[in-house]
Design a protein that fits this description.
single chain; two-stranded parallel sheet; elongated
């Protein structure tokens, strides 16, 4: 038994949220159709957190960079009340203070 889907229905869900993604001329999904944080962008290596913040005072969710000052990766967390670069290494106490949304925005490494 087979079922048919109308062309009108397919056209109505193409390129919309919870619908069908469309492809560009090279066969790739358009970036505008990906959810925030689906693409992580490495911003580079920085000597200090201040240097990172100076070069990137704002970023996209899950963008990340390496800071040699404390040998840590920092991720942009736009789910915080005040979006900021956050150290991936976080204490249990500080992690427990985050909301579920804030916790899920960054791949934290919880340290004692």
């Amino acid at each position: 038994m087979s079922s048919a889907i109308s062309l009108e229905y397919l056209n109505s869900i193409e390129g919309v949220a919870n619908g069908l993604a469309t492809l560009d001329g090279t066969g790739k999904i358009l970036l505008t159709q990906l959810p925030e944080g689906a693409i992580e962008t490495y911003k580079g290596e920085f000597a200090t957190l201040l240097a990172l913040q100076t070069d990137y005072d704002i970023a996209n969710l899950a963008d990340y960079a390496y800071v040699t000052e404390d040998l840590s990766f920092y991720y942009w967390n736009s789910k915080l009340a005040t979006p900021a670069w956050v150290n991936q290494n976080i204490t249990v106490t500080n992690y427990n203070l985050l909301s579920a949304s804030e916790k899920s925005a960054v791949p934290y490494i919880i340290i004692p």
